[in-house]
């Protein structure tokens, strides 16, 4: 019933494996190598399973990296391994991957891979700008070159550890900030031009993983919570404007939506993983999440640049109970 209600593509229950969830993501990796920007968004209340879905089993913010695939690993490790497998089938030296990890906390963008002169990682505040092309960019953001899946997963672990430690976040729960892990693939396509000489083109599609959730805390954490809720309502407003094909999309109303502008608008492919508790006591939160999914579902992806014959498509919504 829920599936029909919000038009979810697939619904997964407690007995479904991480592998079966990943099957939904696999085609998006092909799209990435075809040149599309892709974004997978995990959305849901505190404790609903966003981190479990995206990374796999973890204790607090500690996530262990394994060189070999693990039985229960989440979407990020599986996607990263599949990405390198796909790249290994391409001509050598044509694709390279860089990773950036950003936390959006109290409407600030924090670069979780920024280092000081001694190489120690520290969170540094960055700004998001609108470029002359209309897209968004974060000047000075750290991008780390990653030669294999383990490299990427190590950076993610570093980022997560740092996220848990910086500033007032010591006691804070992860749901009080948004985490954005982005993989940028540089593709060198060599084509023979009219004079018979080879010309190289560079293309930078990227794959963003985004974890976000609302929480119902009070007291000291209220400030963080109100920022979380404000950026999520800004996200909802952006999806609403895109769904109604309004000429003005309010990306710049929050740092989060400004940062994610190129991942949710334009011809980017968006997949929303709604993490929803099956428990009755969370019915309000669950309905809120389903409402968000329903709104995201109505967005029509615009400006398809690849094949003009391709139909406009909507984001895929995956429901995890
Ligand atoms: N599908 C699942 N199978 C087994 N355990 C799960 C599953 N989903 C979540 N859990 C467990 O439930 C707990 C909460 O999940 P998780 O930390 O992923 O939630 P979250 O949405 O990331 O929370 P927060 O927003 O507070 O960070 C964890 O102990 C996790 O291991």
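^ structure tokens above, recovered residues below v
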């Amino acid at each position: 019933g829920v599936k029909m209600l919000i038009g979810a593509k697939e619904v997964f229950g407690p007995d479904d494996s991480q592998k079966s969830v990943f099957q939904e993501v696999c085609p998006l990796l092909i799209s990435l190598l075809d040149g599309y920007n892709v974004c997978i968004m995990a959305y849901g209340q505190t404790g609903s399973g966003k981190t479990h879905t995206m990374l796999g089993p973890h204790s607090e913010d500690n996530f262990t990296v394994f060189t070999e695939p693990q039985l229960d690993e989440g979407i990020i490790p599986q996607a990263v391994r599949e990405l390198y497998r796909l790249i290994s089938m391409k001509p050598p030296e044509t694709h390279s991957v860089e990773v950036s990890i950003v936390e959006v906390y109290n409407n600030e963008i924090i670069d979780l891979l920024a280092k000081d002169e001694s190489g120690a990682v520290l969170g540094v505040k960055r700004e998001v700008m609108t470029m002359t092309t209309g897209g968004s960019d974060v000047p000075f953001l750290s991008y780390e070159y990653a030669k294999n899946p383990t490299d990427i997963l190590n950076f993610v672990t570093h980022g997560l550890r740092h996220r848990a430690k910086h500033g007032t976040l010591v006691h804070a729960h992860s749901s009080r900030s948004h985490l954005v892990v982005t993989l940028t693939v540089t593709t060198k396509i060599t084509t023979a031009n009219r004079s018979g000489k080879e010309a190289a083109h560079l293309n930078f599609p990227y794959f963003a993983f985004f974890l976000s959730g609302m929480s119902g805390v009070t007291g000291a954490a209220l400030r963080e919570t109100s920022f979380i809720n404000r950026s999520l309502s800004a996200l909802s407003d952006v999806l609403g404007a895109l769904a109604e094909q309004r000429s003005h999309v309010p990306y710049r109303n929050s740092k989060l939506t400004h940062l994610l502008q190129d991942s949710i608008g334009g011809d980017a492919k968006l997949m929303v993983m709604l993490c929803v508790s099956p428990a009755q006591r969370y019915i309000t939160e669950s309905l809120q999440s389903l409402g968000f999914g329903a709104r995201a579902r109505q967005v029509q992806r615009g400006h398809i640049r690849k094949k003009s014959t391709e139909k406009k498509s909507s984001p895929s919504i995956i429901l995890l109970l």
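Helices lie at 2-6, 18-33, 50-54, 75-88, 149-165, 222-243, 255-264, 283-297.
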